[in-house]
């Protein structure tokens, strides 16, 4: 079972570094291959840190 906030919504974490992105300047986009929702924090986006989709394994910059 995944982490959740006090209100019962799932915690959103950066797929690259794993930090909680709630209330931050983060990006949300569908995986180009399977459409799974991906979240990335501003720092990982700025540094072009690689990410991997947890559902299909697609990797991107």
UniProtKB/TrEMBL annotation:
InterPro entries, alphabetized: HVO_2753-like (IPR044720), HVO_2753-like_euryarch (IPR049683), HVO_2753-like_ZBP (IPR011668)
Superkingdom per UniProt: Archaea
Domain Small zinc finger protein HVO-2753-like zinc-binding pocket: 14-57
Name of a matching Pfam family: HVO_2753_ZBP
Record's protein name: Zn-ribbon RNA-binding protein
Lineage of the organism: Archaea, Methanobacteriati, Methanobacteriota, Stenosarchaea group, Halobacteria
């Amino acid at each position: 079972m995944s982490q959740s906030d006090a209100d019962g919504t799932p915690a959103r974490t950066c797929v690259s570094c794993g930090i909680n992105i709630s209330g931050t300047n983060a990006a949300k986009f569908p995986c180009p291959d399977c459409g799974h929702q991906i979240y990335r924090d501003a720092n990982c986006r700025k540094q072009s840190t690689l990410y991997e989709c947890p559902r299909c394994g697609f990797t991107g910059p």
